[in-house]
Specification:
This protein has 417 residues and is mostly helical. It has helices at 6-27, 29-40, 45-74, 79-97, 106-129, 131-134, 137-170, 178-196, 198-203, 216-229, 235-264, 269-297, 299-317, 323-351, 357-386, 389-394, 397-408. Keywords: Membrane, Transmembrane, Transmembrane helix, Transport.
């Protein structure tokens, strides 16, 4: 970390902070907890997985609709941090509220989860946009990849603590029910998230902006309309966003529904959690590796590599039957997950105008979030139609192939700074 500035480190630490939510709530413990609550309420496994997918779709739809206009407003001086703090506060408070949901109320559980998701993802939209304020174009791939690596390393700590609490409760070493042990994990998530977001909140500030105008909301809609009219001028940006729309859909769906998928295959909660912990550990060096290789071969080539790995993952999912198969799948995900996300973020930041970064990251958000509506819905619907969740995961191949093809037509850009 010595080669990075204080501001770069402060920005990267938010990956460390928010990653606890990503692994504990989005990926691992909450989905398992939700599946148990739904099962207790008499909801069939396939249906409960589908309902989780539909909930993720609803949350992402709400944020996707808000993204561009909020991003445009946030381009005005002093607004980016305010929007970041609003969504950060929503996400952390909603995560704390998960502790108080009755263990037999799966509908309320999914409702509050919706607010945690909107808060977390909304804050990340503005966090991502801050990358233009903390570093140069030449350093963006490295800084972004290192941020993701820190996230994987950092998330392992609260995850291990949470797993320890749950396992000790299951073995009756500590006087906690399995339900309360999961709730402790949600509390750990909120505390970790809040604590390590402080460097970002204190040290990172908006440097690139447009001057405020009278009637800020009306002016924002005008700027947004002008961007649509100038779409030919931004052909590279929108071609990339179209490719991103498809391939990041598959990435996000696999992340958010992996444990529900494993549960449907009959894998135990302990096996799933340990495998996911290993993913966090393995993914960290691979995220850094993707950033290093991007310097040598270019970010686009490494994005191609990540997409191809995910195509293999989707095909392999059809044959998944045992915990060994799940481990193979998990390790494949670990090699590409951080790299493809980090390089997507930094590549996009390199091709957008700095002073309008929030507006364009609003579009980045809307393309990514609308994509996240399609993927979970596709998996849920296919699983219900076929009675087999594996076919739902396999259907994501279509999205990765389309994303790969469109990315080929994105013009290569030389990074000048």
């Amino acid at each position: 970390m010595g080669k990075f500035t204080k501001i770069e480190k402060s920005w990267m630490m938010y990956d460390w902070a928010d990653s606890a939510y990503s692994i504990i709530i989005t990926t691992a413990i909450f989905p398992i907890y939700y599946k148990a609550v739904a099962e207790n309420a008499g909801v069939a496994d396939v249906d409960s997985t589908a309902y989780l997918g539909y909930t993720i779709s609803i949350a992402t739809l709400i944020l996707a609709l808000l993204g561009p206009i909020l991003g445009t407003i946030a381009d005005y001086q002093g607004m980016k941090k305010k929007f970041f703090l609003f969504f950060f506060t929503m996400g952390t408070l909603a995560t704390i509220m998960l502790l108080f949901v009755p263990s037999d109320n799966w509908i309320l559980l999914l409702t509050i989860y919706t607010f945690t998701s909107i808060g977390s993802r909304g804050a990340v939209v503005f966090y991502d946009a801050f990358i233009v304020d903390v570093t140069t174009k030449k350093r963006m791939n490295d800084v972004s990849a290192r941020g993701y690596a820190l996230g994987y390393i950092g998330s392992a700590i609260p995850f291990v603590v949470s797993i320890a609490v749950i396992m000790l409760a299951q073995m009756e070493i500590i006087p906690l029910s399995a339900t309360n042990a999961s709730r402790i994990a949600f509390l750990i998530t909120a505390i970790w998230w809040i604590s390590f977001a402080m460097p970002m909140i204190k040290n990172v500030h908006q440097l690139h902006y447009v001057e405020r105008e009278p009637r800020i909301i009306v002016s924002s809609f005008k700027h947004l309309g002008q961007t649509f009219r100038d779409i030919r001028q931004y052909r590279t940006i929108f071609l990339f966003l179209l490719a991103y729309f498809f391939y990041i859909d598959g990435v996000g769906t696999i992340i958010s529904m992996s444990t529900a998928y494993g549960t449907d295959l009959g894998l135990g909660a302990t096996d799933l959690i340990i495998a996911l912990l290993a993913v966090q550990i393995v993914a960290a060096p691979f995220a850094i590796l993707f950033g290093y290789l991007a310097k040598k071969f270019g970010a686009k080539r490494m994005l191609y590599t990540g997409i191809l790995i995910y195509i293999v993952i989707c095909i392999y999912a059809i044959f998944l039957e045992t915990i060994t198969d799940f481990w193979v799948l998990a390790m494949l995900v670990a090699t590409a997950q951080g790299g493809i996300q980090a390089l997507s973020r930094s590549y996009f930041a390199q091709i957008v105008p700095k002073e309008r970064a929030n507006e364009f990251f609003g579009f980045y958000n809307i393309f990514g979030k609308f994509a996240a509506i399609l993927g979970p819905f596709l998996v849920g619907a296919t699983a219900q139609l076929t009675g087999n969740t594996s076919y739902g995961v396999f259907s994501l191949v279509i999205l990765f192939v389309i994303g790969f093809i469109i990315l080929i037509f994105v013009p290569d850009k030389k990074i000048a700074e």
